[in-house]
Amino acid sequence: MTRPRPMGRSPARLIPISGVTGKGPACFLLEGEGRRILLDIGVGPDRGAAPDLSAVGRVDAVLLSHAHADHAGGLHLLGAVGDPPVHATAITAAQLPREWAGRVNPLPLSGEIDLFGIKVTTGRTGHAPGGVWLHLAVGDGLFYAGDMGFESELYAIDEPPPAATAVIDASAGLDDTPQADRRSAMHHLVRQGDALLPVPAAGRGPEIALFVVEEICRKPSLCPELREMVANLCGPWRETLRAGTADRLSFLLAMAGSVEHRSPGPRGVVIASNVMADAGASARLLPEWLDRRDAAIILSGCVPDDTPVERVRGMGRAAVAGWNVHPRISDNARLLGALGARTAIPAFNGRVPPADWEPALAPTVAATGEVTV
Ligand SMILES: [Zn+2]
Known about the structure:
Bound molecules: zinc ion
Radius of gyration: 21 Å
Shape: globular
CATH superfamily of the largest domain: Ribonuclease Z/Hydroxyacylglutathione hydrolase-like
Structural class: alpha/beta
CATH topology of the largest domain: Metallo-beta-lactamase, Chain A
Largest sheet: 7 strands, mixed
Strand order of the largest sheet: 6-5-4-3-2-1-20
């Protein structure tokens, strides 16, 4: 059924700059109500991948969904589009490079702002600290997921308003493995022996640490970056969490060990940032763990090209236990139904052929190029 377009709104255009074909970083241009707005400006995940802004022209504003590099790592490129003002939640802004502190306009975690007369609604995404989806009241309504997760124990998720066009987080492709299966695979790998888990601190890291404590009943050692993140989450950033989880994180922080700057590092279960092991405590610990043939190295997410974790996997030294931080295909189908969407743009996945989306997301039409909103 087609909903009538709200009075006075003309059609808008959504132009994917990057993030739809191939697994490039997020960057979308919205043209509507006489304004030009960028949704996210990421780089990576593969080294050197960046959106081509050379033909974009001047932009009025940038809205960031969350602080992960593939969504917000391209702020240094904004000179090419006239250095527009950047909008993000306070928690996202706090995770951006230092030079952006105080230069970001606020977005609510869950609420509304007026941007040049366009109503922008936000809600939490269940994916990362401070992460929001964006709903823009242009044309028949545009929903932009950024990254979402429907199965997080930690991060809260809010229901979006209806939208005819939806950019969905299709990072997980057509996979429909429930988190319960992920958790039992992780349980099996971590229940005994020594294990190093390179994780993102601002994502599944705190959630996996909580799982190790609560479900496997082991005491993990956390790197300083992860400890700082957990302290923020159960302190000033608790609004990004599901109700009741801040106290569980406080307990985690009190009982977990620490990864200190000394060699050899701790044994047991060691959870350390960063996820690629090319910087931070995981990079420092990796050579030591590679020398210990009895110790497991457990990867739990996407493995970008040309990174230490990719090399470790190539050597056959890594165990892989995925952890759902993006929607399963059934989550996305349900989301599109709840939005009442007519057009879906499956983003952040370069592996699924365009024709394969439509049966999975029916009755929504799947688009991989420029669309009218
Ligand atoms: Zn993300």
